[in-house]
Every structure is written in structure tokens, then in C-alpha cells.
Design brief:
Number of domains: 2
CATH topology of the largest domain: Rossmann fold
Strand content: 15-25%
Helix content: 25-40%
Distance between the termini: 25 Å
Number of strands: 11
Radius of gyration: 19 Å
Largest sheet: 5 strands, parallel
Strand order of the largest sheet: 2-1-3-4-5
Structural class: alpha/beta
Shape: elongated
CATH architecture of the largest domain: 3-Layer(aba) Sandwich
CATH class of the largest domain: Alpha Beta
Number of helices: 8
């Protein structure tokens, strides 16, 4: 999952980023409400995690603006304000869930995963497009610059995940969990082999690469003009 975390407390943010990263998810952090709002409007996320008391724009105002644009990404409010009236206000502002601080990370993780599954956000898009690269989940067709590309089922699933997270680095752990359904490292080169095959199909006959290896981090798919 790609998760937007809007939290101004540096230590709290580091804890969340580490926890979700270790769980195989892709956390993106914003330290204030205005930055969080910009990211929520311009990028696709599976879940939003919002603190209430934020600099520049508070969490509930952020959420109201997101909902005003018909954006229904599930949102969990994570706040030290835990009175009944506070929780009710958060839910009425467009929140899907509300968890008070302090909290157990295992509970937060479970709630976030339930939200994503409930809304079907993990695979809700039937057509994915990054630059001139297009993938249709229904017809199982892939093309780049109008040229059809034939992929094996695992390659198709790998590409779909990379496209869903285009522009961000995806780690080996994320790929193992989301593409291979492994929740452990099998200690094989299965990812390297499939990445190599996929790169040969979507990049080989074109001028600019789209599938990049980020040394020490993972892989990133992005538009050719932004590559490098």
C-alpha cells in the first residue's frame, strides 16, 4: 500500500515510516497540513493517516478539502485528542477511522489494512498509464507508444504494481509481499530475474529507460523524460 502520513512530530513520523516500511508498505511523509493536502490532491494513495494538530493547516481542514474534491481515499485520524466529541468531529469531517495516541502499532497497522481492503483501493484501477506505457487489467494488454508488449502472468502483476507506485521507490520486501505473496525473504534472485525480463520487454526497443534500479533501495518506474 502507498500510505500518506501527515504528522508534524519528527520522532512520531520516523516511527510510523519505519513500521509501515518494515510491514512492506510504501509510506510517504508530510510534516505540515499544506504539504499533506498538496500530496493528497496530486498523488494516489491507498490510505491517509492524519494528525489533527498540524502546522499551516489542521488535519480536519485538510480532510474536508480532500473530500470536497470528491476524493474518497480512506482516512484514519491519529490524534492525542481522544474525547468522544473529538472522535465524532473527526468522523463527521470525513474520517473513516479514528485512533487515539498513545497506540499500539500492531492495531494501527491492522486498521489501515482493513480500510484499504474495505474500499478495494489496492487494485481499484482497471487501466494504468505512465507516460506512453499503458496496462489494462481487464484485457491483460500492455503497450508502450502503441506497440503491444507480451508479458507472462507474473511479469504482468509486477508491472501493474510498479505502475501503481510510479515515481516512488519500491523495495524488494514490498515486491515479495505484493507480487509474490511472500511474507518472508526466500533468499533467491527471483526478483532480479523478473525485473531483468520485464526491463527487456518494456525498455529494450525504446530510446529511454523507464524501469530504474535504485542501488541499495529497490526499483522505480517513471516516465522517460524524468528518468536519469
Amino acid at each position: 500500500m502507498k500510505i500518506l502520513i501527515v504528522e508534524d512530530d519528527e520522532e512520531a513520523a520516523k516511527f510510523l515510516i519505519k513500521g509501515f516500511g518494515e510491514a512492506g508498505h510504501n509510506p510517504i511523509h508530510a510534516a505540515d497540513g499544506e504539504t499533506g493536502l498538496h500530496l493528497a490532491k496530486t498523488e494516489d494513495f491507498d490510505v491517509l493517516i492524519l494528525d489533527r494538530m498540524l502546522p499551516k493547516l489542521d488535519g480536519l481542514s485538510l480532510l474536508k478539502q480532500v473530500r470536497a474534491e470528491d476524493n474518497h481515499t480512506p482516512a484514519l485520524i491519529l490524534s492525542a485528542l481522544g474525547a468522544v466529541d473529538d472522535r465524532v468531529e473527526g468522523l463527521r469531517s470525513g474520517g473513516d477511522d479514528y485512533l487515539t495516541k498513545p497506540y499500539a502499532f500492531s492495531e494501527l497497522l491492522a486498521r489501515v489494512e482493513v480500510l484499504a481492503k474495505r474500499t478495494g483501493n489496492d487494485d481499484s484501477e482497471t487501466t494504468l498509464k505512465v507516460g506512453e506505457l499503458e496496462l489494462d487489467r481487464l484485457s491483460r494488454e500492455v503497450s508502450r507508444e502503441g506497440q503491444k508488449i507480451l508479458l507472462q502472468p507474473r511479469e504482468f502483476r509486477l508491472l501493474a504494481y510498479l505502475m501503481k507506485n510510479a515515481g516512488t521507490v519500491v523495495t524488494r520486501t514490498m515486491l515479495l509481499e505484493k507480487v509474490w505473496d511472500y511474507h518472508f525473504d526466500p533468499q533467491t534472485n527471483v526478483i532480479d530475474v523478473h525485473i531483468s525480463r520485464l526491463r527487456g520487454k518494456i525498455d529494450k526497443d525504446f530510446d529511454e529507460p523507464m524501469l530504474l534500479t535504485i542501488r541499495g533501495a529497490g526499483y522505480k518506474l517513471q516516465e522517460p523524460e524524468k528518468a536519469g
